[in-house]
Amino acid sequence: MLRLRILFGMIAFISSQIANTQETLSSFKNDLKTTSTNVSVKDAIPVVNHLNNNVALFITDPKNIYGYLLNDNLAVKNKLAFTNKQRTFKTLIGNSIYNNNYQVFLANKKRNKFLFANFSFEKQESQTKQFSLNTPDEKFIQSLSLNNRFYLISANKKTDELFVYSFDEKGISKRHKVTLPDFNFLGKTGKVVTPVALLFSQKSDLKKIDTDVPNPVETSGDLNKMYIRENSIVFSFDTNKNLTQVLTIDLKTFSSAAKSFKKPLEEFKSKEKKSNSFIIDDKIFLATTNSEKLVLQILDYNTGNLIKEYLIKKDQLISFKNTPIIQRGGLYVPTRRMEKTKKYLRKINKDNFGLSARKVDGKYHLVMGGYIPVGTRGVGAGFGNFSVFFNVSQSSFNSSINSVSTIIESLFDEEMNHVEGKIKDDAFDKMKPFHSKPRKGETLFKFKDFFVYVTYYSGSKLFRLEEFKD
Question: Tens digit of pLDDT for each residue in 35-63?
Fold first, then answer.
């Protein structure tokens, strides 16, 4: 009976999506690969040049790395191949581009040793160089690539110091000590702590949020998050259920500033509620829930002024949702609808709680609910596998595929008024019928105003690049 139910769910899901056909942008053969097809491709690593929309796609197998430089139409314009000798470094953490030299940064398993790799398509050569953090007590926190430049963030828990490393075209690093603000950050129990202590308070890797990407609650539900806003790094901390605390680091001066936002339902004890936040544009969404109700507040991020507040009570219908209450149990388990609000509140208070927002067609699309953490799809680990440090788009897509969650979705206008209407499928929804199973050599990336999914066919050594739009 269960097998039939799952089968019918799969058929219904695929049938409902069949109209969302994908457009092939380009395809090319991996003709640099001369080894047997039995030696399988492990990874495809996209590096997008945001200044000219060229893309370097690096393909790895256990022995070699193949690089293809694509123009702004995603057609091959240059290529190179070389032997992969650096197999200790398997986690990609970022990239930079200098004078058409494409550079990637990798870390070892412990993230205490790193590799800089430079690839020149013009000179048909590559160089690598290893480096470490300045002191043994420093720990890797996160990384980012902004305006074709790479930055690495580290912290020393013993001295409560925070650092940002920048890199020149030769991979030579410069460590900048962040000037921390005179601000009383509060920990989970309300005691004063340092921002470095908050960064180390989460056991899992710090999630990097891109608000231009569909973020499932599995991605946005972590209590510590990192955003890139203009030329700054923004850390948000939700370990304290009464406050969202924010630390902003200016990447030009390496100075910092801090502020906090009070969350709703402050009168309830911490053990009786769950809360989280999400920052987008000039707004911050704050939500607190317990088994009786949920309060959603949207504040002006710059002033802290309240723009709008919405309330959910367990014995009332939810007035601002645009979808039913949806229960997802993974890709092959049929989506279910939950009728009663009290069940939704009970479920999200039992699970982890998160919310995310994304602006699409001039409206803010909110997703809010509870989730159960599950493992992401497996990928290879050759030259450097995707991670929460490098390919945020792929990480979010993988989380959405494995989603075990209970959510509602809503639409709001610029003034945060609720807007009636159907929620349209986003780019990730359109990908899922075609790319739900893990496959070596596949990847995806944000390009211009759409997403590109790269599929590899090992028998023909063919790569196909498909476009998916919201």
Answer: 766 557 788 889 999 899 999 999 888 78
